[in-house]
User: Fold these one by one.
Assistant:
Number 1:
Amino acid sequence: MKNPQRNLPRAFVLGMLVVGALYIFVNLAYYYVLNPTEIANVSTASSVATEVASRFMGAAAITLIAAALMMSSFGALHTSVLASARYPYAMSRDRLFFQSLARLSPKTHVPIRALIAQGVWSGVLALSGSYDTLTDYAIFALWIFYGLTTASVFIFRRRMPDAERPYRTPGYPVIPVIFLLVTAWLLFTTLIPDPRLALNELGALFHFHLPEKGFQGINVKQFVGLGLIALGLPVYWYWSRHNLAADRAATARDGE
């Protein structure tokens, strides 16, 4: 890509505008064909897109919409697989994971071992539970790291004020602050959809009395997801300590 400092931000902004316009256009089309009551009563076994398309194409709409969803999912997964495999690769390069995953293919310059490890772990996750549970965990975790990535802008600007910045955040610091506030609100409402009920449930829990209908004011699945994310902390601690010991040993050998 030529001049990525200029072209990447343009591509991101243009891409968001195009996708946003398409979403609005599609939803307007839905409400043009179906009224709000019909949309609200669509069966969980179907979808709004299928119901709308069936008005024009009949039974063939089910096959067409299923094929379109598969193509869309395949495209999204394709980019996700390529990007996500770079996480263990980068961690390995920073000596925070197994060093073997940091190797690139001499022919394709692709981290093949990281891709294989990602594929194996994805298969384990796919066999471990329902698709809805996995997506709930994934989307919630992604928004946490979206917020952390945005917050890092403030840290780097404070610690390295003179560093070269090929891309300057427009509207800094207002736009990043607004993004962080919205992210925090989304995460909070996901964890605790009903704060009043959550307080009552927590009070009952501290008195060793579990709610009869289970926890309805607290999203237990997301707290489990937080626990899974927190498991990465001892892993990071282990690898960072291991690297520190290795650096000290190397320094001692060089001194001799």
Number 2:
Amino acid sequence: MRKRNLALAVGAGVAVAAAVKLLTRVAGVNWDDVASFVPHSDKSKFIDIGGVRIHYQSFGDIANPAMVLIHGYTASTYVWNTTAPQLADAGFYVVAVDLVGFGYSAKPRDFEYTIKAQARMVLDLMKAVGIDQATLVGS
């Protein structure tokens, strides 16, 4: 019984800590304060997609076949900082996107943080930057 109560208390403590962290996180980062520390910041762009400010980096010639790089959970465009330029050098137009809530994209509390909503945002981003067709790569 004591072990069970201890396990419940620890679990509750972790849940409370996670909730506090999520509710008190910074809504965004001032780009001008951090741009000099961001790999390939000269390739960074921001666009409004559905009322949400999205950060992405683009490499290569837009006339080349497009490749959209999507980071994994808890990551950002940073995971592509070596790969994206290499793919551009290999003849692709590369767009690495920070999903909503990650990296330098906005982190709205009211966004529907689902795979479907993130996929919709990526499709809207592709349309907005003039990509009709692309190879999608995820990590």
Number 3:
Amino acid sequence: MAVGFALVIKGADISVSAASALAKRLRVSQIVIGLTVVAFGTSLPELAVNVTASIEGNTGISVGNIIGSNIANILLILGVSGLIYPLTVAKNTVRKEIPLSLLAAILLAIMANDRFLNGGARDRLSRSEGLILLCFFAIFLYYSASMARNGANEEASPGTRNGLLRTGLLMIAGFAALVVGSTWVVDGAVKLARLLGASEMAVGLTIVAVGTSLPELATSVAAAYRKNPDIAIGNVIGSNIFNIFFILGLSSVIRPLPLTPKVNIDIGVLIF
């Protein structure tokens, strides 16, 4: 686990440096890079854990991991990052990206209450609901692409192609370190939890969620330390959107995810 933590921290530092360079070279705002490239990269551990859990039928871990990770992103990661450096939030982020993240949580709450709202036999995220979540993710990608086009007003410099290749390789190396390090940390934590006899949902909401959120934590902290608040904030908001719309959507398409009424408490905390 100690080696895993070291990989996560180093990978985050590399990723933030490369993402900042990529934003400058492409003439794209850092908030767009944070919302997309950085957010998706730091969510790779959640994606890997959820896909594996869905295939193996560990649906409690799939649901708990996403809800717990999103709560940790907002309360823990933004909190720690704000202590390091004041995080100035752009007006566009307040008006568009944050409401979209809130919409994702509210949509999850609606989908998680089939029995109450539709008189269904049980509460679950079905494959059709998973496809709906993936459609919302496609809309978010279109919106992000529009932001990137609007922000790219200048021609690339002569050495941009070589610079982009180097930046891309650095980002891949950073993300690889994040994924490998987080996997080692989570594996060790899950084994410990099982020794303690904890439930899948409890493991997903706590140990797995915090473990898979380590890349977001390390990346946003590194961004705050480097005085890049847009990447720190964009990473958290983009990761939360990615987690619900894409990862939870994909997980429920692979295998419908049964839910219990207790999950409403956790979703309520996320919305709050």
